[in-house]
Amino acid sequence: MHDATPPLRFRTPPGWPTPSSEWVDLFQGAEPDAGWRPIEDIPPAPSRWRFWAPTRALHRRVPRAARVVPVVGAAIALASFVAVVVLWAVGGPAVLALAPVVAGTALWVIGASRYADRLAEALHAVRAEASVRRATELPARAAAVFPGADPADASAGWDARGWAVPGARPFVAGPPSRSGTRTQRALVAVTAGVAGLVLATGASVSLLPLVPAVEEGAARALTGVEPGSPWSVEGDDEDAAQPEWTSDDGSIEAWWLAGDDEWEGTCDLTPGDAGCDAYEIDSDRTCTAVVTVGFFASLDDARPSRVEERTVSITEGVPLVLVENHDEDTSSIGDVSCASDDDPHADRIAATQGADADTDAERPAGCATTDCVAFAVRSSTDCADAAVQFRVGAEVGSIGAPHDVVVMTPLLAGQPTDVFVGGTTYASDVTPGGVTCRAGTEDDSAAHA
Fold it and tell me: Where is this region: Disordered (predicted)?
């Protein structure tokens, strides 16, 4: 039976209507220009949103030979790896099995690299085919649905039908995202690293504790795709957090939260329709930290147009979520450092954070899809960009409990400002964590160079 599954599946941004299967079929791989949305009264897609996820149909477009080579290489390397362990266990000459380990790892890495190249070619072909089909088929389809209408009216009617909303805007295509290219490079690097680990560990004949890690490496080789990467087609891994920044000693890591549940429980609880990014920061130490965030006017910019610093309290073993609203196309964490000032609390300002069950403020859109509770924050001083921190004893998507959340908001001295916290409707689950106000910098910091 012919498989009608399209090569790419459209990932609908939060708040958008779902396009029809006919629209998805004709617009395979097409990504809208920054800020475009089907109708005016919905928010734009979050920055760095992945509009398309590959299906098994895209992977089947890769030639069979490109899929077989990394599997064969991995099988040779792992079988030789087992031979090294067995020979070492019985006191035999384990070094004799190292030659096939070397050959297998080489074939494994080369095969993974070629698979990534073929997958990129298949993705490019899908986009090109869809572009040709739109140019040749779309006018005829619109005319067939709206006979007698002039071409412009027929096209507008087809757009409205495709999005199931009246007055849908014509699609404006932007440049393809670079996430696929970055993922393919990461795929080859990870595969090479895993294969190198097999080789090095086999040579040192101390492999028994690492057998589970090698089995995981075999799983990577079976598809040539890193499990949990944006290009994985298994489960809900397409929404997994993406690595953003890691300290030199590995004690602090920052992740960009890509999942819908995390978005709804963080960014969707902030007011307005500006861009928003949520970052999770995990630390092996407890300290007052300064987080450096760069904001980029365009996704193509190599350096940020402005840089801000946030003072937060990080706790060992407790994830901290930093919620950043911005008018730029995107943001990025450039550094997270424990404060070295004589007074690490110098940025803290006097403020109260009290539950506000009777708030008159308009509840944000996220409160309609996830639990939330409002807190009224009153500051003793003005702050254009205050960091308001809470400890939350509830889960938000993949973010465990307890976790800290920091929301950036302007404060006016003596005037209450409502801040919404997601994951619970009980104020007793939320503990105020203080408010800080730190002056930012306006030039492009070396942390983002």
Answer: 225-247
Kindly state whether residues 108 and 90 are assigned to the same domain: yes
Residues with Cβ within 8 Å of 205's Cβ and at least 6 positions away in sequence, in order, are 84, 88, 94
| 274: alpha, beta or left? (left if phi > 0; alpha if psi -120 to 50) | beta
Structure tokens at 107: 């074939």
* Residues forming a β-bridge with 254: 245, 281
Which 8-state DSSP code applies to residue 399? Answer: B
Of 187, 212, 238, which closes a domain? 238
Q: State the CB neighbour count (10 A cutoff) for residue 178.
A: 10
Radius of gyration in angstroms for the set of CA atoms belonging to the chain, rounded to a whole number: 26
263 and 326 both lie in a single domain: yes
Same domain, 231 and 338: no
Does 425 lie in the same domain as 284?
yes
Instruction: Say if CB 262 and CB 399 are below 8 A apart.
Output: yes
Q: What is the DSSP letter of 47?
A: T
Q: What is the pLDDT of residue 204?
A: 57
Question: What gap in Å lies between CA 63 and CA 435, rounded to an integer?
Answer: 57
Whole-structure pTM value = 0.51
Is residue 88 classed as helix, strand or coil in its secondary structure? helix
Distance between CA atoms of residues 403 and 138, nearest Å? 49
Q: How many CB atoms lie within 10 A of CB 221?
A: 25
According to DSSP, residue 95 is labeled G
Q: Which residue type sits at 53?
A: A
Backbone angles phi, psi at 247, to 5 degrees: -70, 160
Q: Are 375 and 432 in contact (CB under 8 A)?
A: yes
Tens digit of pLDDT for each residue in 29-68? 899 888 899 998 899 989 889 898 888 888 888 888 777 8
41: domain range? 1-238
Number of domains composing the chain? 2
What percent of the chain lies above the pLDDT cut of 90? 33
Rounded to whole angstroms, how far apart are CA atoms 93 and 98?
Answer: 10
Q: How far is CA 132 from CA 54, 126, 128, in A?
A: 20, 10, 6
